Amino acid sequence: MLDLLTLGTRVQGLRHERGLTLQQLAGAAEVSVSMLSSVERGQKAPTVLVLARIADGLGVPLAELVAQPEDSRVIVRRAADQDTVEEPGGWRRTVLTPVVPGVNFEWIRTTLPPGCDAGRFPAYAPGSHEFVAVESGTLRLTLADRTVELGAGDSVYFAADVTHAYANPASVPCTYHVAALIMRPRAAQPRKPDGAR
Question: Cα(66)–Cα(1) distance, rounded to whole angstroms?
Fold first, then answer.
């Protein structure tokens, strides 16, 4: 089990990575804001039930939330632990990278069936970047009003602060990788009263 300060830092890092406020995570986890705040500050030891709710609210397994890393500079994610999501429309994506609190990087492997349109994704905050490499098939990437077709072995970089869409126009499946560094806008800080530091 992690010490309370390390656990709190991990919870806060995962919350920030997902762009959630304390209130939003507390609502999703069905715990009080004061409890969540105390956990994040390392001031209160949560019960296993509270930890499980926080893990659910963050979308991570409880074991991953409380695991004591052997070396925080090296985090291994085994193939069996990778999260694969079956999306509407028949396409599939697998998150290959470990979750590292405070690091907004992810590497995803996606497979689109023939003729599949995965839809349009919103622009991320300025400073976001995506690299795409096609493993097999044909990928149609649309960036705002520009369209690029990529084949097996092709790759592309784009600043991800524009809307972007992925589609497979071909009659065979397309598999591609996305390496993304996604910046999240900073939450507005409450104004301090005049004279406050």
Answer: 6
